[in-house]
Amino acid sequence: MIEVLVVDDQAMVRIGIGAILDAQDDLSVVGEAPDGRRALELNRQLRPDVVLLDVRMPVMDGLETVRQLLDESSVHRPRVLMLTTFNTDDHVYEALRAGATGFLLKDSEPAALVAAVREVAHGDAALAPEVTRRVIERFVDGAGVAALDPVALEVLTDREREVLRLVALGRTNAEIARSLYIAEQTTKSHVSRILHKLHLRDRAQAVVLGYETGLVVPGAH
Fold it and tell me: Which neighbouring-strand residues pair with 82?
């Protein structure tokens, strides 16, 4: 059973999300919080597998909350899926850098929400394609993010670099496999090795690293 903590300042949103998730045999909402401060308390008490976290909240916003949830000193570090109303929210990029596993628009279809929670719980990134490219490109391009030394990628083979580039562009494993004329399972193996070699937690951090090292430039396709 995948246990979920829902964090949003709007009660109706929490109730709606809870109803959708609790209707699934493998998902269970174990707690709700109206702000980040309460979310941190419940995370320590309940130790959920996934935290669905609104970006904009009073008392403590989603960005500061994800930083504290995933800080190395945190008692329990869950997977975090950010929720936002805006597909160009300027907090999303920083949330990914802080360790969030992905983000989803609040008006996404229920099936997309359920799928995203499962993906995040199983260690995959939930990065909505219609949002990912615009958000990442906008804020790497314009927010003054310091680029990392490309030497960081020297541990990768040429093939792994190409896979990382496509991951950073928001491609799925199936799309990468078709593009490189390889099996999807081979793509998954490449992604796993990339994460291991670069000491990355998940695919979301690989997306960020791809841009920060200059492997992918804003506007690339």
Answer: 53, 103
